[in-house]
Design goal:
The complex is a heterodimer of chains A (311) and B (771).
Chain A: H1 7-23, E1 30-31, E2 38-39, E3 54-58, H2 64-82, E4 86-89, H3 97-102, E5 108-111, H4 113-123, E6 126-131, E7 139-140, E8 142-147, E9 162-165, H5 171-183, E10 193-196, H6 200-208, E11 214-218, H7 219-227, E12 231-236, E13 240-241, E14 244-247, H8 253-263, E15 288-290, H9 297-305
Chain B: H1 2-13, H2 18-74, H3 77-89, E1 94-100, E2 107-108, E3 114-115, E4 133-137, E5 140-147, E6 156-162, H4 164-214, H5 229-267, E7 271-276, E8 285-288, H6 290-296, H7 300-303, H8 314-330, E9 337-342, E10 348-360, E11 363-372, H9 374-401, H10 406-421, E12 425-431, E13 437-443, H11 459-464, E14 468-470, E15 484-485, E16 488-489, E17 491-499, E18 502-511, H12 519-595, H13 599-627, H14 630-635, H15 637-649, E19 655-659, H16 669-690, E20 694-701, E21 705-712, H17 719-723, H18 732-743, E22 747-752, E23 758-765
Helix pairs in contact in B: 2-3, 2-4, 4-5, 9-10, 9-12, 10-12, 12-13, 12-18, 15-16, 16-18
Classes of the chains: A alpha/beta (311), B alpha+beta (771).
């Protein structure tokens, strides 16, 4: 018993030290000064070492960050599948993706039909694949929607009402709806006011908010919104070859073929679903099929007719 | 050792008074509890707030990243700036925020410029903010959360959360607990002091009573016996005091008995010593009784306090320590051990000892009991030596008693001696009467060692009869070359094999060291030598006796044959000589009647008959002389010798020289007869075989012995062939001479060589003869 007395304080001290050590699980502090060595000029983050890669551009469809995430996930998938280095290219504000594709800044681009027709018209860019929609069709349609409680029931009743288009170069947001209005006997002059939005989402918001009496949307988005009871579809167009991925005019044929072969194997709803970012929200939720320029002849004529291929 | 140091430190640091110790203990407990509580609260608050901050930081960073992502993609610097400013403004814990896109500069909330140090945390973030990175800044600990909202693009959002609020809350909680601890300590001191004063008062009184008990007041008892723990203690104290009082009485009685036991042991010679078994006096004698003092020769006062090893023989110290260690380890009395002790006079004593553990004067001690067995051991050793000696002698006696030839007996005896002495090398040299020596038997050699007798060292034993020990390096030893064992010369001891003061041989045994040959060993060897000598002598005697008996038997037969021959010769002589003469006389007498009428014729016949009767008488006298001359009986030996020499030798032309004393010499009848018959035989041999021309007959008479010598210059003979001749060819006449001499305890010497003549010398004792 006497022998235990001197060891008791040591055991207590050891226990306290154990507690201290056990509770101190903070990572070590990194010393940083917030008030010294200040950079008063415009500061850029250290840029990573530039690497050579095939640049994948994209035009705006949804929100910018969503477009970026979808394109980045596809680039990542292409890198893994083709063995080539891929990176995405964000077109800065005020610049055109068609220009960048034609002048070689971008090697491949996810773009709509009108943009393809313009790029082909301008510099000979070539379509590689086109998208397959949610019902497994390699065509798409445009939809003209109205608010759910709108009194408008036919296209001809749009006369004298406000109308929201998508981007001017948008096939589903502008080109095909113009043809649908034209078939209904309406021109832009018959509308009370009209506007162009940069994305289908903006067009949908304009309609659902009631700021515009009707709007032109891609069919998939329109159907989705209609299912959720946010809009009512006034009319659906005939099917047209969907948008896809376009190669720059000077892209190597071997790279184009490798990319094309890879893309037609893309399985967004199967093996590749985890890699792709919300691909169901894109215009090609079921992947791609091979595309040729001849598939777009009808649309090319329509585009030319409405002046989208000028000059 | 370490424990002792800690106990000493505890004794030095802690106050002596129990009250102070209790108060100190309480303060220590309260302070320790307070410190542990403060630490625990501090840690809990810290962990909780840190978790909360991390959760908030992560959520806010994610939210900012999501909201600013579009602006980052678009390069909308204004929107970006607005959002980071809002993040800082709306969260007091956020010290700073900054973000940048792939083509935009860093948009931040630092007024005076962006800290370059923060560039180190840029581009080093995960996709999720996680727990962030803890930074040590001038403003305290800051946790930086970083987020990359767009995978694949160099787009990052950073928020810096100050941990100052956590530290402040921690400090407040710690200060509060410490304040409570200090307050609790004060209360604890006051409470403990009051309580201890009240609680320890009976203990103080009890302490005083214990002190008085310790001072020897064994009738001291506690009077205040409350019904609490102190009361239990007081009752226990009273019981303890009762038991102590009783125990002390028992101890006193036990000590008295113990002293009586020690004294009684001393009276009967049992030595007892108590050896201290602990502390600085370990190994020192605490107590010795008179018997122990007597054994050692020291006074008890000289012994007490000295080390027990002082009186132990150096050879026994290790044994004693082993025995004592055994006692201590087994806690059982040790088995008896024999130890040697050296007393004051240097004499070595052998003790039979045992020991056991005990206590003496409050100290652990070894009780060491001993008994002097020196004399008994000496007797045992002597008895053992004698037994061994007797065994050896018995073995040798058994060996020599068997009916064996001398060489076999010697070999067997040597074997038994070596076995008895536990040796392997030995040899026996026999010495003949003429002084020649040869190695009769040996052990431990391939070839017999050269005895070198009589020039070796051992030869001295034959002359002075004393045993000798020859060392291996003594170059005078002639057997030295043979006595090599493993390259080293052996030494050897040699004793005489003697019988009736005559050395018949030498017995030698060899060993590696002369220390083997102790006085008892040499005595044993000498005894064996004597025994072998007697046996050897007996063997010789038996052999002599056997030969003599054989010769006597043969001689008896020869005597019988000679008797018959002599009878036939006498009969023949009586028949052919005397008988015919008597017949002629009878015929003459018969014829006398016819001539009686003629006186002349009768006178002539009578004269002739008278001559015939005279011839018959003479022939009869010759026969009687041949059988035993009456001359010997009438005139003595000298005259008989002279007559015989003349009758036999001179008659054959041998010139005889007689060297005899006066003719009137008379000797005992049996001596004269023996000498006469021997001379008759010797003279007959000269006549028959010697072809001698001269002969000498001498007779010397001493005071108690008479010697007769008969020598001739004849052809002589081979004496060795004579001794080894076959039975049929033995010279029975010479054997008869020897036998006659032996019958009178005399000696007959025969010396002859071919061509050198023959000498027969016989000496016979006379006068007082032994039975």
């Amino acid at each position: 018993m006497n022998a235990l007395r001197p060891t008791f304080p040591l055991l207590s001290l050891a226990f306290v030290l154990f507690l201290v050590v056990a509770c101190s699980n903070e990572p070590p502090l990194r010393s940083v000064s917030l008030q010294q060595r200040l950079l008063v000029q415009e500061v850029y983050a250290p840029t990573p070492t530039p690497t050579t890669c095939w640049k994948l551009g994209f035009d705006r469809r949804l929100e910018p960050k969503e477009d970026v995430r979808q394109a980045a996930s596809l680039a990542s998938w292409l890198q893994r599948t083709t063995g080539l280095a891929w990176c995405i290219w964000i077109t800065p504000p005020g610049e055109a993706l068609i220009e960048q594709l034609c002048n070689g800044e971008v090697d491949f681009a996810i773009m709509g039909t009108v943009s393809y027709l313009q790029a082909h018209h301008r510099c000979g860019a070539q379509i590689v694949v086109r998208g397959v929609n949610s019902v497994n069709e390699d065509v798409y349609r445009a939809a003209i929607v109205v608010p759910v409680h709108s009194a408008i029931t036919t296209l001809s009743e749009l006369r004298g009402h406000s109308f929201a288009f998508g981007a001017p170069n948008s096939t589903q947001g502008h080109l095909i709806p113009r043809l649908m209005l034209q078939d209904a006997g309406l021109t832009l002059n018959d509308l009370r006011i009209f506007t162009f939005n940069e994305s289908h989402a903006a067009t949908a918001k304009a309609v659902t908010s009631g700021r515009y009496d009707a709007g032109a949307l891609q069919d998939t988005l329109a159907l989705n919104l209609a299912e959720r009871g946010l809009v009512r579809i006034l009319a659906l167009s005939d099917p047209y070859p969907s948008s896809g991925i376009v190669a720059a005019p000077d892209a190597p044929a071997q790279t184009i073929a490798l990319t094309q072969n890879a893309l037609v194997r893309l399985d967004p709803q199967g093996a590749d679903a985890a890699t792709l970012y919300h691909w169901e929200r894109s215009e090609m939720p079921r992947g791609f099929v091979r595309a040729e320029d001849a598939d777009y002849q009808a649309l090319r004529q329509l585009a030319a007719a409405v002046g989208l291929l000028e000059p | 050792m370490k424990m002792d140091w800690l106990l000493a430190l505890e004794k030095r640091l802690l106050p002596r008074r129990l009250t102070a110790r209790i108060i100190l203990s309480m303060v220590v407990i309260v302070v320790s509890a307070g410190l542990i509580t403060a630490f625990a609260v501090n840690q809990m608050v810290s962990r909780h707030l840190r978790s909360e901050l991390i959760a908030s930081g992560e959520a806010l960073t994610l939210a900012l990243g999501e909201s600013i992502a579009n602006a980052l993609v678009e390069g909308d610097l204004a929107a970006m700036q607005e959002m980071v400013n809002a993040a800082v403004a709306n969260n007091p814990d956020v010290l700073y925020a900054f973000a940048f896109g792939p083509t935009t500069p860093i948009v931040h909330t630092f007024r005076d410029g962006f800290p370059s140090d923060l560039l180190h945390v840029v581009s080093n973030v995960d996709e999720r903010p996680g727990a962030g990175v803890l930074l040590a800044t001038e403003l305290g600990a800051v946790r930086n959360f970083g987020y990359r909202p767009l995978d694949g693009l160099p787009v990052e959002v950073h928020l810096g959360f100050s941990q100052a609020r956590i530290a402040a809350i921690q400090q407040q909680a710690t200060a509060f607990v410490l304040m409570l601890t200090a307050l609790g300590s004060v209360v604890a001191v006051a409470t403990t002091y009051t309580f201890s004063r009240l609680a320890l008062r009976p203990l103080t009184e009890l302490n005083q009573q214990v002190q008085r008990l310790g001072e020897g007041h064994f009738d001291e008892r506690a009077t205040t016996v409350a019904d609490d723990e102190v009361g239990d203690l007081a009752r226990a104290f009273n019981e303890m005091a009762d038991q102590i009082q009783e125990s002390i009485q028992q101890i006193r009685f036990s000590e008295a008995s113990y002293r009586d036991l020690l004294t009684a042991a001393a009276v009967v010679g049992e030595g007892i010593a108590l050896i201290c078994d602990e502390g600085e006096d370990e190994g020192n004698l605490l107590f010795v009784n008179e018997a122990f003092a007597r054994m050692t020769g020291y006074a008890t006062t000289e012994l007490i306090g000295s080390n027990a090893a002082r009186v132990l023989h150096p050879d026994s110290v290790a044994t004693a320590r082993r025995a004592w260690r055994s006692v201590k380890s087994t806690q059982q009395p040790a088995n008896p051990v024999e130890l040697s002790l050296v007393n004051r006079h240097g004499e070595k004593l052998i003790l039979e000892t045992t020991s056991t553990l005990t206590r003496y004067q409050g100290r652990r001690a070894l009780a060491w009991f001993m008994r002097d067995i020196t004399q008994r051991k000496a007797q045992e050793n002597e008895l053992r030596r004698r037994n061994r000696e007797l065994s050896a002698l018995n073995a040798v006696a058994s060996a020599v008693s068997e009916m064996r030839s001398p060489p076999q007996m010697l070999e067997r005896a040597l074997e038994q001696v070596l076995q008895a002495l536990d040796l392997t090398v030995g040899w026996v040299v026999t010495i003949e009467e003429n002084g020649n020596a040869h190695v009769a038997t040996w052990r431990g050699f391939d070839t017999p060692p050269a005895s070198g007798f009589p020039h070796c060292l051992c030869s001295a034993v034959a002359s002075d009869h004393h045993p000798i020990i020859v060392t291996g390096d003594d170059t005078r030893c002639t057997a030295r070359q043979a006595l090599m064992h493993k390259g080293r010369p052996l030494c050897h001891a040699t004793v005489a094999i003697q019988a009736r003061s005559r050395v018949l041989g030498l017995l030698s045994v060899a060993a590696e060291t002369p220390h083997v040959f102790t006085e008892p060993e040499i005595a044993l060897l000498a005894a064996v030598g004597q025994q072998i000598g007697v046996a050897l002598e007996n063997a010789h005697l038996w052999e002599t006796l056997r030969q003599r008996e054989q010769r006597r038997s043969e001689l008896l037969a020869q005597v019988i044959r000679a008797q018959e021959e002599e009878r036939r010769r006498i009969a023949r002589e009586l028949h052919d000589g005397i008988g015919q003469s008597i017949n002629a006389l009878v015929f003459g007498l018969n014829a006398s009647a016819a001539v009686a009428h003629d006186p002349n014729q009768a006178a002539r016949l009578l004269a002739r008959l008278t001559m015939s009767a005279s011839d018959i008488v003479k022939e009869l006298q010759d026969v009687i002389y041949d059988l035993r001359p009456s001359l010997l009986d009438d005139l003595g030996l000298v005259m008989a010798l002279r007559w015989c020499a003349q009758e036999r030798l001179s008659a054959q032309g041998v010139d005889v020289v007689l060297d005899t004393p006066e003719d009137a010499l008379r000797l005992p009848e049996e001596v004269e007869t023996a000498l006469f018959r021997i001379s008759q035989e010797a003279i007959a041999n000269i006549c028959r075989h010697a072809h001698a021309t001269q002969a000498w007959i001498g007779l010397k008479v001493g005071t108690d012995e008479v010697c007769m010598t008969i020598r001739d210059n004849g052809v002589g003979f081979d004496l060795d062939a004579f001794n080894t001749s076959e039975r049929e060819q033995r010279p029975w006449g010479l054997l008869g001479m020897q036998e006659r001499a032996a019958l009178l305890r005399g000696r007959l010497y025969l010396d002859s060589e071919p061509g050198e003549g023959t000498t027969v010398r016989v000496c016979l004792p006379f006068g007082e003869s032994e039975p």
